[in-house]
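ok so i was messing around last nite and threw this chain in just to see what happens. nothing serious, just curious
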Amino acid sequence: PLFRLLEAQLQDQRREHEEEMEALKNQVDLMQEELEKQQQAFLQTLQLSPEVQVELGLQNEITRLTNENLDLKELLEKLEKNEKKLKKQLKIYMKKIQDFEASQTMVPAERRLHDRNMQAAVQRKEKDFQGMLEYYKEDEPLLIRNLIT
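result:
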């Protein structure tokens, strides 16, 4: 069983390795094709007159700058969206701070009343009952069984 498990793991690793190699081969092939296209374009450019070479160079630079501008516009839109979201959160937090500060500046009498109400609520929750237990006669066997267990 252990041998079979190890053999299965080895086969899985071999399969993963082969898949990775295939993906890398495909990537190399694509890069070679792209390189060949660029070399052909370069050779064709060299055969053109200097004026046409300059014009093609300018067109390529314009295309590159246009793409870069589009990327920057997209980034700017994302940042503006994030800024709006953060401003909303800031407003919410500022409101919470104002509410908290308002509760801290209560008139002392109001605060004492508020504190007493809080203490009364806490005292009620912490009350410890001692003494007799009230139950129905028909629940007695169940109660005794629970007490024993």
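not much to say yet. Confidence is low (pLDDT under 50) at residues 120-125.
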